[in-house]
Amino acid sequence: RKKVTIRHLQQLRDMGTPITMLTAYDYPTARALDSHGVDIALVGDSLAQVCLGLPSTTLLTLDEMLHHCRAVARGCTYPFLVADMPFGSYHTSVEAAAANAIRMVQEGRVEAVKLEGGAEITEIVSRLTTIGVPVMGHVGLLPQRHVSLSGYRVQGQKAAGALGVLRAAQSLQSAGAFALVLEAVPHRLAEYITARLAIPTIGIGAGPRTSGQVLVWDDAMSRWHGRKAKFVRRFADVGGTEAAGVNEYVAAVRDGSFPDPVEEGYSISEEEWERFL
Ligand code: KIV
Ligand code: NA
Fold it and tell me: What is the pLDDT, as a whole number, of residue 253?
């Protein structure tokens, strides 16, 4: 099984085969994506909330991100591996962005980075692309700007906003992005943008007519107890299974039924026991 490449993703898009992408923040999750043929693994900066308990992605540091990227990289032999550049790690200058992107590749072992924004980041996208760090863009709802956007809200529901999302998508493609995430935009707008771009679009809350879909692992597996966005579908109830398991463990320890001395323990011979006594 050959590792997924950018060329392969482009072929899926050209053939109209939907691209599958899920987030992963650790080795076992990477293995799950790997074994079941997910096309792209994303170490999203949603890591901040769903894995580290931080209130927003803007608090995640580059070092924290790198630590998780390395773990995911070890389990990711098949999916194409992309990670978010954390807030602040690509905004201060093109030089800083390039230096930090190189850390993502060398220390984080990722194959590509994802950046949020439009025309204002194209200089950075083009630098990273030309030095060999492929960039996935991210337009529509930009969680790293949740404060300036006054929360996590659907984008592009007014004509001017829709045009803004289209322009952002076009500038990222022109700057060399190999794919784009479209987050929380009307499905007609996502379909329109997808038809006008040559690169794959990966939707989240963007309807079925993008080149692929992405969800946050903990949302899709129902391991996240925060607010559920409208676009989340729960494909498994891992949270429910975990809760039942913890309850059963606590009850079994308290009533003495765990562990079984023979089935779940070790023995010592009579002879050795006598000598010990
Ligand atoms: O951080 C993240 O998980 C993401 C995806 C939802 C696209 O950016
Ligand atoms: Na993100």
Answer: 98
Q: Give the integer Cα–Cα distance in Å for 60 and 24.
A: 16
- CATH class for domain 6-236? alpha beta
pLDDT of residue 226: 85
Mind telling me the catalytic residues?
183
Peptide bond before residue 259 is cis, with ω within 30 degrees of 0? yes
ipTM value: 0.99
Instruction: Evaluate: CB of 111 within 6 angstroms of ligand 1.
Output: no
Q: Is 216 touching ligand 1 by the criterion CB < 6 Å?
A: yes
CATH 3.20.20.60 positions along the chain are 6-236
pTM above 0.95, yes or no: yes
b/e map 141-166, b = 16+ CB within 10 Å = bbbbeeeeeeebebbbeeeebbebbb
